[in-house]
Amino acid sequence: MDELTALSDATLDRLTVERPRYDRQALTPGIVHIGVGNFHRAHQAWYLHRLMQSGEALDWAIVGAGVRPFDAAMREKLLAQDCLTTLIQLDPAQVSAEVIGPMIDYLPIEDGNAPLIAAMADPAIRIVTMTITESGYFIDPVDKGFDAGHPDILHDAEHPRTPRTVFGAMVAALRLRRDAGHGPFTGMSCDNLQGNGAILRQAVVSLARMTDPDLAGWIDANATFPNSMVDCIAPATGPRELALAEAFGIKDAAVVTHEAYRQWVIEDAFCAGRPKWDKVGAVFSDDVHAYETMKIRILNAGHQVLSNVGEVLGRHTIADCMADPLISALFSKVQTEEIAPAVAPVPGMTPMEYVSLIERRFSNPRIVDTTRRVAFDGSARHTGFVLPIVRDRLAAGGPVEGLALVEALWARMCEGTREDGTDIAANDPLWEDLTAVARTAKTTPAAWLGQRRIYGDLAEAQPFADAFCRWLALIWEQGCAAALTTYAGPSRQTGRT
């Protein structure tokens, strides 16, 4: 192999792949993004890069940020290569690469978050975006309100100038902007939460109200928090992904692989302006809710349909799950009969067309998206993605047999062992509690539904509770294959091409 080119501004001209055609030295910041993972760089950063390639949005460059110690490792990698990223698109037909460069800096990670607060207080920053995972918004699991009693929130209320959380840092920065006579920034969540903008507003305004009601009122009246729906599968980076970059002659410590599909639907509510993302494929809509409902219910809930049983049966990736006739039959039947009927169409796409699209995307063998990654944080993902569908189907008098089976398979996974006897490593912030309850549920299935912070009153919903207990008992008595066969039949196929 020829000598690899270490990624940097100085080496861009040596690359043989598509690369920034804009002058990166002329870029000025307009966005702070908190939580610089693979998804952000394959999605939001890519849209901005495409605008910059056409000569626009050069004053909207991204400054990366984080609030947890583990963010420091990504910061070190990206700064060492001038915040450039190689994106490798894994289309089933071919693999292609490009280098993007809309990020120009990555803030230091410090206790008290002083660098982050100072950056967001700068009036040049007009948008603050974030990908901090669904469990990062301090949502009370029972009433879905703001969890004001969380220790990190209590800390931020008591120490508003040296906060621990993203929201504490945002409140501190907004205070500085108000006191200096500047307007607020737009806060935009890019996480998979229904009404993610409203949830972000709830977190920021609620925390501000705990220390400064006047500031909370100013934020609520003047700042904007648009809802958005985001979609692009970007697996975690490991040795295989690093080797893919090397195959293009590039040494990139933070390469990102992604599928050949992106979608971004945004509510057009930006108090301090925005890039023209719609010129490069983003959709601005007054009905983000319909798009996010389709995506969260069919794709995100669909991930949980596959990944939990995939872990128990030792299927390494989502594509492996789709290649398993029993698992893919479960996916097809529960999507067709229970999930798609709880979804409304959006312009240009019916629910069943979207199911077919997701089947094709999940089946792409080039996308090494592990079941472990997808199954992570099930206590947040089942609560946010799956259980709202259960409630809707029960209210409509629709079937919930398949969804009850999905929950039983999650309970089986949380017991902590696969059917081959190997251990499933801890994979949830509540793992110890979940495992303890899952082991009790081996003989008393109803114990699992007794977790009110997850299931609320669903334990009293007899069609769901009875089906769940029956499925979990069958899983422990005869195994997952028996349950899947009983539900979907031994030869049912997904119908995908």
Automatic annotation (TrEMBL):
User: Which key words tag this protein in UniProt?
Assistant: Oxidoreductase
GO: which molecular function terms?
oxidoreductase activity, acting on the CH-OH group of donors, NAD or NADP as acceptor
* Domain called Mannitol dehydrogenase C-terminal: residue spans: 287-469
Keyword set includes ATP-binding? no
**Which Pfam families does the annotation name?**
Mannitol_dh, Mannitol_dh_C
The reply to whether Oxidoreductase figures as a keyword in the UniProt entry is: yes
**Which residue range or ranges hold the Mannitol dehydrogenase N-terminal domain?**
30-279
Gene3D superfamilies the UniProt entry points to: N-(1-d-carboxylethyl)-l-norvaline Dehydrogenase, domain 2, NAD(P)-binding Rossmann-like Domain
Which SUPFAM superfamilies does this UniProt record tie to the protein?
Answer: 6-phosphogluconate dehydrogenase C-terminal domain-like (SSF48179), NAD(P)-binding Rossmann-fold domains (SSF51735)
PANTHER family per the UniProt record, alphabetical = MANNITOL DEHYDROGENASE 2-RELATED (PTHR43362:SF1), MANNITOL DEHYDROGENASE DSF1-RELATED (PTHR43362)
This chain belongs to which protein, by name?
Answer: Mannitol dehydrogenase family protein
